[in-house]
Automatic annotation (TrEMBL):
One of its GO terms (biological process) is gamma-aminobutyric acid catabolic process. GO terms for molecular function: succinate-semialdehyde dehydrogenase (NAD+) activity. Pfam families: Aldedh. It comes from the Bacteria. CDD domains: ALDH_F5_SSADH_GabD. One of its GO terms (cellular component) is cytosol. Residues 21-480 form the Aldehyde dehydrogenase domain. The keyword Oxidoreductase applies. The active site is at 257. Keywords: Oxidoreductase. InterPro entries: Ald_DH/histidinol_DH, Ald_DH_C, Ald_DH_CS_CYS, Ald_DH_CS_GLU, Ald_DH_N, Aldehyde_DH_dom, Aldehyde_DH_Superfamily, Succ_semiAld_DH. Belongs to the aldehyde dehydrogenase family. This is NAD-dependent succinate-semialdehyde dehydrogenase.
Amino acid sequence: MSIQLKDSGLLKTQAYIDGQWVAGDNGATFDVHNPATGELLATVASVGAAETKRAIEAAEKAMVAWQALPAKSRSDILERWYNLMLESQEDLAVLMTAEQGKPLFESRGEVGYGASFLKWFAEEGKRVYGDVLPSTADRRSIVIKQPVGVVAAITPWNFPNAMITRKVAPALAVGCAIVLKPAAETPLSALALAELGERAGLPAGLFSVLTSADAPAVGGEMTSNTTVKKVTFTGSTGVGKLLMKQCADTVKRTSMELGGNAPVIVFDDADLDKAVAGALVSKYRNSGQTCICANRILVQDGIYDAFVEKFTAAVNEFRIGNGLDDSTTHGPVITEKAVADIHAKVESAVAEGATVVTGGRVSDKGSHFYEPTVLTNVTDEMRLFKEEIFGPVAPIFKFSSEAEAISMANDTEFGLASYIYTNDLGRVWRVSEGVDYGMVGVNETAISSEVIPFGGVKESGQGREGSKYGLDDYLETKYICMGGL
């Protein structure tokens, strides 16, 4: 294995179930490759339904003592886990870049972001409050909050560290146990987190990591097992809908962070340089492979040409390559299939009249690389307008009026993130309230942090992650009536 870490103990290749590192029952494995080089990084255990069931049973047993602990005791363990993550930030970043491809500076940032959820919920877990309700003379009405139960989590490859801690931290903070299936493309980051959690003192069974190349087997057990009380998922809308259907038979709680089609709306009174810089970061971060990436850049006609010129000049300065190289600004796309899907969308747009200003083809760097691309003369009839691109392609649309911009922004079944650039205070309020999205960035596209409620509306999902609201999905509200007083 070619991954060089200061702490070699962080490189794990077995699943983590009930505090033990284990192989799959049938000895099955799958390979993990570096998408930038094609190099084999590791061969990892692949588990199925039987192992998933055992992890769920272990979680149920471990949760009995865990939820009985004072919140302060749970907080102390999460705090130690946070500190261990920061101490291992460079190793965790190297692991992430090797298996996912993003540049090392982005990976370092994600590790810090991921650790922040452990820190935040270590504190918020101590602030789960109840109520005493107005009552009659002979009774008292009390409301308390209790952990929802065993949680099953399924996380994506594009943020293989932070999308785990954003779910695990609130679940553990309030007294739940959690069973995790990470993406098959990026299991090493998840296993390293489990190792650090064990070192922090997390009791066996509370957090299991089920590495698997058989997602239907693991997911099927998670959604059908009556011990699991909640399923949380980050990924595509199609898979999210399937999981929700599967959870219906046992009426599980679900929280879903699904696909996006984020607009960046740039009005002619905006600070052009700030708008260009914000749109660039939003569009091309992680080579366009984020759910809140700018999917459609909508620019008012009076500044359209100037915006395209500045935006394209900046894109032409990008350097794609291996994320471990210091000169790289943008890494590979996760799979060759993903590259093919991106290129098909570009070709479809060009066939319908779009103009390629820069890029528009698979890079000569290799089959996992797609050139950062800018398209103009795009319309709302094209696939690029209606579908999530999930790659380094920026279609720049033109609009005339505020009403048209809002209408274009809302013309999608998705509603996760949106962004507005304007210096008109009245317009800020009108457009922020008028767009159907769970999150709105005004003159800013870097909107994510542990303190904000991350989530969408419409087919972009349900529930919120992070912030004080992020505890709600892991708690049940119980009413107690005390009579005969």
